Amino acid sequence: MPRSGWAREPWPLSLRVRSLCSITGDATTVRGPLSTGRTLAGPQANPRCRLKSPTMGEEGGGRSCGTTRELQKLKQQAMEYYRENDVPRRLEELLNSTFYLQPADVYGHLANCFSKLAKPPTICKVVGKNVLDGLGLPTLQVDIFCTVQNLPKNICSVVISTHFKVHENALPELVEAEEVERSDAVSTAVRWVNGTITEELQGLAPSNQAEVDQVLR
User: Fold this and answer.
1) CA separation (Å) from 38 to 5, 24, 41, 65?
2) Which positions ≥6 away from 130 have C-beta within 8 Å?
3) Residue 30's beta-bridge partner residues?
4) CB of 139 closer than 8 Å to CB of 160
5) Distance of CA 90 to the CA centre of its chain
């Protein structure tokens, strides 16, 4: 359990995060009760940190964590990227709340919190397939793939029935003609789904049925 003094005063945790933002040796600090008020940098932050330089040897010509224009540019890009996505503030809030909650499964708690911050799924691909139905006749199957936490996942699959009927005691010529027509119709639908439909639905939220219906009109 946290000390009583910490419970009375909402001090944030002190954690040190090394990332692209600290690639030059500067440490990213999250303030808190364990903070000494001193931010280490360079070899003091990580004595083992040694960067290879394309123009220097393994030890960087004797300079640990030597800075180059490329690294400075990379550091600036990383800082802008994290700032635009509000990462520092959210990380600080999450780590502080986790410390005071002290859940038994720390990583499970963090995973649950991060999943709530993730973007909602969006359609990334619609796949049409020519499959056989329960009667052994060709029909259309459509699979919906969505981007969920940066990964494509198959959300649902549906087999679409056709309007063709199976006639009993029909003439062979009629049966053959209907099979050809049915096969052509399914093939056309597959091409349409894999082409036009996929392009029009990409990026839409599958939960927004009204917008999907508007696009498909």
Assistant:
1) 22, 17, 10, 20
2) 138, 139, 140, 141, 186, 187, 190
3) 15
4) yes
5) 17
State how far the Cα of 102 lies from the Cα of 99, in Å rounded to an integer.
5
Sign of the CA dihedral 82, 86, 89, 90? negative
* Selection from 103, 99, 106, 104 nearest residue 3 by Cα: 99
The two tokens of residue 162 are 């056709």
Other beta carbons less than 10 A from residue 211's beta carbon: 13
Token pair 């709340």 is at which residue? Answer: 97
For the chain of 217 residues, list the mean pLDDT of each consecutive stretch of 10. Answer: 42 47 46 45 46 48 63 90 91 92 93 90 92 84 92 90 66 76 88 90 89 85
Residue 161, C-beta contacts closer than 8 angstroms, at least 6 positions apart: 133, 139
Structure tokens at 168: 């009993």
Q: Outline where the chain has alpha helix (H).
A: 4-8, 69-84, 87-101, 106-117, 172-192, 198-201, 209-216
Count Cβ atoms below 10 Å from residue 193 Cβ, excluding itself.
Answer: 20
Cβ neighbours around 66 below 10 Å, total: 19
Question: What tokens does 29 get?
Answer: 């600090």
Domains in the chain, CATH or no CATH each: 4-117 (no CATH), 122-216 (3.30.390.10)
Question: How many angstroms from the chain centroid is the CA of residue 177?
Answer: 48
Q: How many CB atoms lie within 10 A of CB 212?
A: 15
